[in-house]
Amino acid sequence: MRLVNYERDGQERPGVIVNDFGDILDIQSVMPDMASMNDFVDAGYEAVDLLAGHLMQSKDKGAVIPAASARLLAPIARPHRNIFCVGKNYHEHAKEFHDSGFDASAGKDAIPEHPIIFSKSFTTVIGPNEPIPASADWTNSVDYEAELAVVIGRGGRNITKNDAYEQVFGYMIVNDVTSRTRQRQHKQWFIGKNFDGFCPMGPWLVTADEVGNVEELQVTARVNGELRQCALVRDLIFDIPTLIETLSRAMTLRSGDIIATGTPAGVGIGFDPPKFLKPGDRVSISITKLGTLENPVA
After folding, report:
1. Which residues, in sequence order, are bridge partners of residue 2?
2. pLDDT at residue 59, rounded to an integer
């Protein structure tokens, strides 16, 4: 299923895409207790199965909302807590970042020995077609990072790699927008990653059963139509089971937790001179089966 969070007539509501035109069935119209996407994810795959049973009947009754009359928001606009992010998790990107002069964490080796984890505040989240506020960064060093995000379903503590995929509810696209100068200055990355509006997310949340083998998905990013990033998820240094196991050894993962798995080579600082985002640009990120997330730059 392609699940969305949308706005219509000034109200934010969870929905599900019902056809190739992007038309939406309002989830709360058939499942009244589901007031938000957080509620739906918390309910897990039982809710998915129940919603599937409503879909054909709802279409017959004309309960579908035309895509043109709804504005898509971030699928999980207000996460329960910070988004977990992974740094330097594709081999070629780890090398380009190591050599860029912006990596304050750089050591002798470009490839990290263990996953590098940081977080982004919920205040960074924006939806499809919302402007990335690059002008808020007075250093003029805003960069894009196309990433696959994992949304946790059941969660738990001390989850093993073998059990990790059973804990995944679904997947979506995020753009880990970054002020490179602030990232370098503050060394631990948090401030450079946490400007308001620096985490575009969407266009929808796709349930894991519809995605299949996630390692076969291709991640691409274009800026003003120019292809910048292209890689397969199988190229991750630390795969999704490793990330889930690593995080859950330290903390209890909760339903609705979001893990951004890292970005491939081709970010702005990989060019000489760097290609930073500027107002008027447009960033387009696509992942197989997950759609395309587009945002203008302001």
Report:
1. 206
2. 57
Last residue of a domain, one of 22, 48, 73: 73
Q: Are 297 and 279 in contact (CB under 8 A)?
A: yes
Q: By C-alpha distance, which of 180, 178, 175, 162 is closest to 293?
A: 175
φ, ψ (nearest 5 deg) of residue 18: -110, -10
Local mean pLDDT, 10-residue blocks, the chain (298 residues): 93 93 92 94 91 72 82 96 94 73 66 92 98 97 98 95 97 97 86 97 97 97 98 96 98 97 95 96 98 98
Residues in the chain: 298
**Cα–Cα distance, 190 to 82 (Å, whole number):** 11
DSSP letter for each residue of 160-220: -HHHHGGGEEEEEEEE--EEHHHHHHHSSSHHHH-STT-EEEEEEEEEHHHH--GGG-EEE
In degrees and rounded to multiples of 5, residue 220 shows phi and psi of: -135, 150
Strand partners, 99: none
Range(s) of the domain holding residue 271: 83-296
The answer to whether 257 and 100 have CB atoms below 8 angstroms apart is: no
- Residue 164: CB atoms within 10 A of its CB come to 20
- Do residues 131 and 253 both lie within one domain? yes
- The pTM of the whole model exceeds 0.85: yes
Closest CA to 176 of 210, 200, 195: 200
- Asked whether residue 78 is assigned to any structural domain, the reply reads no
Residue 244 belongs to some domain of the structure:
yes
pLDDT at residue 111, as a whole number: 84
Cβ-contact 84, 247 below 8 angstroms: yes
Partners of 172 in beta bridges: 149
d(C-alpha 29, C-alpha 51), whole Å: 11
